[in-house]
Specification:
The chain folds into 3 domains: 53 residues, no CATH class; 74 residues, no CATH class; 178 residues, P-loop containing nucleotide triphosphate hydrolases (Rossmann fold). Helices cover 43% and strands 16% of the residues.
């Protein structure tokens, strides 16, 4: 691992120095303001010192320390009964029992499913199968199928069934809420949060560009993602292309200063560092920034390529802060979209946007319930 310090008049210059020597994937361990050396340093402006590590495997906590691995105590306290050893054959037996229980539960579910679908019209069962193929939860799919069956006339053909199914699906996705600013709004603050790798920064660039060029709004950007050189630099590049201001905040005090600086802008987007929602220290740090800024909206960005249960778990972890809306990204990277309806049905939050590629400012759209329903039924050809 290579660790170096770079000192310059401003953060951007220090980053550029680090990037040239260590590459764009270097990790920022610490950033602080320092005085120039010598007597003149007391009268000169402070400089920025950035400590950087060139090691992709390094894990950085909010306190810039390394995680410690807990080891079992070889000498348990007095009074503790020793845990009996489990043989390999016993482990195999326990695993087989768990698999048997899971298989029995699956059989029971399928039998219940067959019983519920018994007697339904063939076109309805056909569309039920399509929903399942598109990763729609079985319970939701059965509910939709039952609703479609109840609405069908006796003489309904497959085309009629499809129209009824489309209409029923739309009812599950009526809560669409893109960003809308009331006339005269100033300083509308939006935090964009989410796990690593979902495309938050690119999504913010798309939103900022569309707000600037299509809606003629004054937009400003703030980034709290100071952990990787490439992250802050990427957003700054977008800001330069769009022609809007950007501020990098290292501390809560920096964030307060940036908000004061941009308070006359119509809308301010805050890009947060991608974090594992299971890391409590990182979530606490993010919550602290949210408490200080008191944003008007917090938008959670999720990737549609993630499975339903993981998406719901991610939401529950981020729900320690008030999530107002959702954005689903990477619709261009999958052909199954059932996760969308599953998540919306579970967490009851409005859907703001879809992203369908990497192009800025394109490849972002306000979801259309008819379009989503059609996507979920595309398997019928």
């Amino acid at each position: 691992m290579k660790i170096k310090k770079y000192v310059a008049r401003d953060f951007q210059t220090a980053l550029q120095m680090a990037k040239q020597e260590l590459g764009p994937d270097a990790i920022i361990l610490q950033t602080r303001q320092v005085r120039p050396r010598g007597l003149k340093g007391w009268f000169a402006p402070r400089e920025v010192e950035v400590t950087v590590a060139a090691d992709d495997t390094l894990q950085v906590n909010s306190d810039r320390g390394r995680q410690r691995t807990l080891k079992p105590d070889p000498d348990p306290p007095a009074g503790c009964s020793p845990i009996p050893a489990v043989t390999a054959s016993e482990l195999v037996l326990m695993e087989e029992m768990q698999q048997m229980k899971a298989m029995m539960a699956e059989i029971q579910t399928r039998l219940f499913e067959v019983d519920r679908l018994k007697g339904m019209a063939e076109p309805v069962r056909h569309f039920y199968d399509i929903l399942i193929q598109n990763n729609v939860d079985r319970g939701i799919a059965r509910e939709i199928a039952a609703s479609v069956e109840a609405r069908l006339p006796e003489s309904g053909d497959e085309r009629w069934v499809r129209d009824v199914c489309l209409h029923t699906l739309q009812e599950y996705m009526q809560d669409i809420a893109p960003i809308i600013l009331a006339p005269g709004t100033k300083g509308h603050l939006i935090f964009v949060v989410g796990p690593t790798g979902v495309g938050k920064t690119t999504t913010i660039a798309k939103l900022a560009a569309n707000m600037t060029f299509l809606e003629n709004k004054q937009v400003a950007l703030i980034t709290l993602d100071t952990y990787r050189i490439s992250a802050a630099e990427q957003l700054r590049t977008f800001a330069d292309i769009i022609g809007i201001p950007i501020n990098v905040a290292f501390t809560p005090l920096d964030l307060q200063g940036a908000l004061e600086q941009f308070k006359e802008h119509d809308i301010i987007f805050v890009d947060t560092a991608g974090r594992s929602p299971n890391n409590q220290e990182h979530m606490a740090e993010l919550c602290h920034y949210v408490e200080i800024a008191n944003p008007d909206e917090i938008i959670l960005v999720l990737s549609v390529t993630t499975n339903t249960q993981d998406l719901i778990n991610i939401y529950r972890q981020f729900a320690v802060m008030p999530i107002n809306k959702l954005i689903f990204t990477k619709l261009d990277e999958t052909c199954r979209y059932g996760q969308i309806i599953n998540v919306l049905n579970e967490i009851k939050r409005p859907l703001a946007y879809f992203t369908t590629g990497q192009n800025v400012p394109d490849d972002i759209e306000v979801p259309d319930p008819v379009g989503i329903a059609s996507m979920l039924l595309k398997g019928d050809g």
